[in-house]
Amino acid sequence: MDFDFTPYFKRYEELLKELDDIFYKVKSQYPGEVKCDSGCYDCCYALFDLHLIEALYLNHHFKQLTEKKRNAILIEADKADRKIYKIKRQAFKMHEKGASDEEIFSEVGKARIKCPLLNQENKCELYPYRPATCRVYGIPLNVYGKAHCCALSGFKDGQKYPALYMEKVYQRLFFISQELVQSLPTKYTALHTVLVPVSMALLTEYDADYLGIVKKKDAVKNNQDITPQAWTLGGK
Hints:
The chain is built from 9 helices and 5 strands; from the N terminus they run H-E-H-H-H-H-E-E-E-H-E-H-H-H. The chain is mainly α. The protein has one domain (6-221). Helix 1 packs antiparallel against helix 6 (166-182) and helix 3 (67-96) runs antiparallel to helix 4. It is globular and about 60 Å long.
């Protein structure tokens, strides 16, 4: 990777640590309801997208694997990406026909796409670096006002449980991604708004071309200001 994203990776890792702490706190309070355990890989078939900071972080650690492992994973990533494209295309057609967001999300939620990082032993090749969603999958979640929980869990409908508000998590991921983009001399100033599935995060080469890096001589020629903008994150 040509750019040092270490400061942003550290901020992201702080968030992941908080999520891990929340998960294990809920698990300790509801041991009979949280079924997550070694050998369970239900969440490895969930369909979700990553913010830029998550994609860069996962891609960075993916590059540390052996070439043999990377090649095997990329084959699976390509398969997954093709399936995801068809699912998103179907969702778009449903939207065009007037389906509600709830109907679309319900239909998409039924999709079972194997994560390309799940190996033949049903273990994650990058488990220590897995995304935020993977870390909280087994506890009650509030996603934009809707309650969600793993279908294998023991949480019962109609009862009250502590829930993690994912909107706040998404906001922090967005702000870290935004700060990162604003630190770059890039022409793609809205790059932090792009969400991608795990498969695309692995397939993508996050080089200068993808990041839209403007060379200093070109910026001067076109009278562009490539000075990184200051950005201060708010509270957690």
